[in-house]
Design goal:
It is built from 39 helices and two strands. The protein is an all-alpha fold.
Length: 686
């Protein structure tokens, strides 16, 4: 036990103690100045260095008890070593404090700490630290004092101070089991403070010293929490449900149980989720009214056609979310699927200031990651980007790989919507390099969604469909039922555009079943849009129904896409005036959001409606001779797309493309696509 737990991170330790490192030359220079003082004055400088808070009254009382009266104070201040201002006393620079403290002998330091401890009441937290500085072996009495200090520090949110106090208490413990329990407490406080590597080391030391269930009890299930944040979810689930039975506090058991459900959800394992749910209901259902209905939000089963009786309707759900503790609320993709995203976003935003105030960095990073995804869906993209970026920085500092990946997928979603395919590729590659090997299907599915969106919005539907179908492919690393639901509209649109109406019809039936099950506005809107995309006699009614869904406007991108799809349908039906209204509304929304690929698509469609001032995109007289549809065919042909590829993008047959292209060549007096490329670029053909 002599090197129990090592030391807390040395740089962090020095920072918290307020004493930066001092080189030997600087230390000798200060020692020469200090040795020129009288012995009482030298002791007074050590007292000021040992009293870390700069409390002049405490230093003054300790000094008087040690023979350092007013004359000694005058000697020290005249020497320029101490600065006194009101009730504060300090050195000119923290380097001076360190030089004074380390330059004196061990006996002088112990004398200073003893004098300072003698001036303080028994319950003072700093008294325990001064007494601990006197001990070089084991002292259970001082260890208990530090333990009480740690408990008080944790209650007021000073988790870093609590971690230091428990670690020092463990070092002073005479019995291995006591040291092990205190190290477990120190590990949990270190994790909450954001010292992930230190938490891992302390927890390992606690289990090495005295293995047993006490480690889980005192760390409050930390092994499973850390595994969930940075390891394999299935292993985390095992640790968490095991430790649920070991922790004495019902609230802690509830936290571990819901985290086990998150772990099960993240790997798409309904059986593991049900096991954790069973344990939660056994422990808590008697004491928590409405718990079964709240936990029903954790299901993504679309097989039921009607909502269970204990699931509240959306109006009641919002009230329930606001009164439900956060651990009971589902993962954010499920919250989106159920349509409880806005009240959940409100609950998370209310929690963020408290987490910042208490320096609970691990919980703060997780909350920011969740907030970012919800803000994305609501169209609050600047806020989403800010939250995701901050959460990513925190998660990287913590070593919480999965929280970092969650933030990356939110940033990747934004990049896809904005048309930044390079950022999408970078974010998804970083996510998949950890999520696929560790089996975190939810993160892999989110990354595939990012890629599929980027391809779809850049009008590569075949590529998009090939990516998005992986979310429903049995055994694939990105297969996940929640994300299969959330991407159903994207998958259906890509399928329609490549002629796979069978697949689109299957996706719309899934959406309709989920809409009946939950009443979620986004699901109702998306189901109607997909019906409209499939065409037929009911298409216009479906598009109108999508735009009339109460609450659909809160999903800004989805609603704008519904407007655009309806406008495109109207334009193809030669109802250009009606189409212009719908496409114009979509265009404004895309411009406001910054959804550049969709803005470009909407602008093209608006041009094709013949809106004043919109038609034509070239400055050349020759290009202005073309109709709007011929101009679009010419643009795509100049990009070297084949007739079939142009037909897919414009939703016309390849034969119609050939007809338009023949007209283009005739009007422009050219014969090849190469000539068209030069003309479109503003050059004379060779």
């Amino acid at each position: 036990m002599a090197t129990l737990g090592g030391d807390l991170d040395d740089a962090e330790h020095r920072r918290k103690r307020g004493r930066p490192p001092v080189g030997p030359c600087l230390q000798r220079a200060f020692r020469a100045r200090i040795e020129a003082l009288s012995p009482p004055a030298q002791l007074l400088t050590v007292l000021a260095a040992a009293e870390e808070h700069g409390d002049r009254l405490t230093v003054q009382r300790a000094g008087r008890a040690s023979g350092a009266g007013d004359a000694v104070w005058e000697e020290v201040t005249n020497a320029g070593l101490l600065h006194v201002a009101g009730n504060r006393v300090g050195f000119r620079h923290p380097v001076v404090s360190r030089a004074v403290y380390e330059g004196c002998g061990a006996a002088t330091r112990r004398r200073a700490h003893r004098a300072l401890a003698a001036t303080m009441p028994d319950e003072a937290e700093e008294r325990a630290w001064h007494l601990a500085a006197l001990v070089h072996g084991r002292d259970e009495d001082v260890a208990r004092l530090l333990e009480r200090t740690a408990v008080r520090s944790r209650l007021r949110g000073a988790t870093n101070t609590a971690a230091r106090a428990w670690w020092r208490a463990a070092e002073l413990s005479a019995v291995p089991i006591d040291a092990s329990q205190r190290l477990a407490e120190a590990a949990r406080a270190s994790w909450d403070a954001g010292w992930a590597a230190t938490a891992q080391r302390l927890l390992d030391d606690a289990e090495r010293l005295a293995p047993g269930a006490h480690v889980a009890r005192r760390s409050r299930g930390l092994r499973g929490i850390m595994e969930f944040a940075r390891g394999m979810p299935e292993m985390a689930h095992h640790f968490l449900i095991t430790d649920m039975k070991r922790v004495p506090e019902p609230g802690t058991a509830l936290e571990l149980g819901t985290l086990a459900m998150r772990a099960a959800w993240s790997v798409g394992r309904g059986d593991l989720r049900d096991r954790a749910l069973e344990l939660l209901l056994e422990d808590d259902v008697a004491g928590r009214t409405g718990l079964p209905g709240t936990l029903a939000w954790w299901s993504d089963d679309v097989s039921a056609d009607a909502a269970p009786a204990d699931i509240p309707d959306l109006g009641d759900a919002a009230a329930r979310v606001r009164t439900t503790i956060l651990p009971l609320l589902p993962p954010t993709p499920l919250a989106l699927a159920w349509g409880i995203d806005e009240p959940m976003a409100d609950a998370l935003r209310r929690r963020l200031p408290r987490l910042r105030r208490r320096s609970e960095r691990a919980r703060l990073a997780a909350a920011l990651a969740q907030t970012a995804m919800l803000d994305n869906a609501a169209g609050r993209w600047p806020q989403a980007e800010s939250s995701a970026a901050e959460g990513l920085r925190l998660a990287q500092d913590l070593g919480a790989d999965h929280i970092a990946s969650h933030c990356r997928t939110s940033l990747g979603w934004l990049a896809a919507a904005r048309g930044d395919e390079r950022a999408v590729a970078e974010a998804t590659a970083r996510t998949l390099e950890t999520s696929l090997p560790q089996g975190v299907r939810a993160l892999s599915a989110a990354a595939y969604w990012n890629r599929g969106m980027a391809s779809l919005f850049r009008e590569r539907p075949e590529e998009a469909l090939d990516i998005l179908v992986r979310l429903t492919e049995p055994g694939h690393g990105a297969e996940h039922p929640t994300f299969a639901l959330l991407t159903a509209l994207d998958t259906a649109e890509a399928a329609v555009r490549v002629g796979r109406s069978d697949l689109a019809d299957e996706r719309v039936r899934v959406l309709e079943a989920w809409a009946r099950h939950t009443g979620a506005p986004w699901a109702r809107c998306a189901a109607h849009v997909t019906r409209g995309l499939l065409g037929g006699a009911r298409a216009e009614g479906a598009f109108r129904a999508a735009l009339d869904v109460p609450g659909a406007r809160s999903h800004a991108l989805l609603y704008a896409r519904a407007q655009l799809s309806y406008g495109e349908w109207l334009r193809r039906g030669r109802r250009r005036t009606d189409a212009r209204v719908r496409i114009g509304a979509a265009l404004e929304a895309f411009e406001r959001l910054g959804a550049e690929p969709l803005r470009q698509r909407a602008q093209r469609e608006q041009d094709l409606t013949g809106a004043p001032g919109r038609r034509g995109s070239s400055d050349t007289r020759a290009m202005n001779q073309l109709t709007a549809q011929e101009q679009r065919v010419a643009e795509l042909a100049a990009e070297q797309l084949t007739n079939r590829e142009i037909g897919v993008q414009l939703r016309i047959s390849h034969r119609t493309v050939g007809h338009h292209l023949g007209n283009v060549f005739a009007k422009l007096g050219i014969n090849t696509r190469t000539e068209l490329s030069h003309l479109h670029a503003g050059c004379e053909p060779p």
